[in-house]
Amino acid sequence: MSSSQQITGQPASKNPHETGSASHGEIAKFWTQLREEAQRIASGEPTLIALVDDVILSRDSAAAALGARLARRLAREDMPRSIMEPLLYGVFERHPAIVDCAMRDLLAIHERDPACFSPLEPLLFFKGFLALTTYRVSHQLWQDDRRWLALYLQSVASEAFAVDIHPAARIGCGILLDHATSFVVGETAIIEDNVSILHEVTLGGTGKEKGDRHPIIRSGVLLGAGAKILGRVEIGTGAKVGAGSVVLNDVPPHTTVAGVPAIVVGEAAEANPAIEMNQHLDCRGMI
Predict the structure, then answer these.
(1) I need a labelling partner for 247 at 20 to 30 A (CA). Which of 31, 70, 102, 234 fits?
(2) Half-sphere exposure of 150 (CA within 13 A, CB side)
(3) Can you give the pTM of this predicted structure?
(4) How far apart are CA 32 and CA 283, in angstroms?
């Protein structure tokens, strides 16, 4: 999905995962790369053979691999893997754009996180990626009016990953959810494509009001660790929010805000802070 194919402005019933997708050839090529990396892991680290074989080497598609990895993490007594895995795989098969989004998330993590040395690493180990992919399944179930099941997955993901994303929230592709612990997203929140978010970020409401009551995060935004963005405020394209900030008002595009409450402290030096991942505050030190 390109940056011009944003989810904002679409009808609420529109599934953001269906707004654009890569070709089957692109996904197939990336899947081949993941399998080759898995083969190297199996050869060099025998203690991980069972994991990489189950998740990657014994699978014939990215959809099957995603289903297997999530099922290993999400299965519980009330929904064992024998039920969980076919459920997840079925959603991925019926909605290949979700797999496309997940692959774009993997690439985004690999490109932006200097600690990530392979796009296979998030699939196997990063709970931010796994939590976000679980959200993508629960969101589809929500759109399909299977809301009890969507809420079940939200609950299990919160338990497994310490990440709580309401299934009705709308999240684009190319998302880096770094570390992820205590990330919370409310029901009417919108996150566009190509956004980078650190741990302990809250996209919350301000009370008991109904309707659109959670933030809009535009493309290219970088949200620092612990930022709290409350109410139907808009974080403009290419903006940066400093760590620990509390944002209660709209943030203009390509500006940097910090503080409690957050105020504008300068302009974002980068055209796309989410991709550059430069967390320096131009006039006030480090995030």
Answers:
(1) 102
(2) 19
(3) 0.89
(4) 45
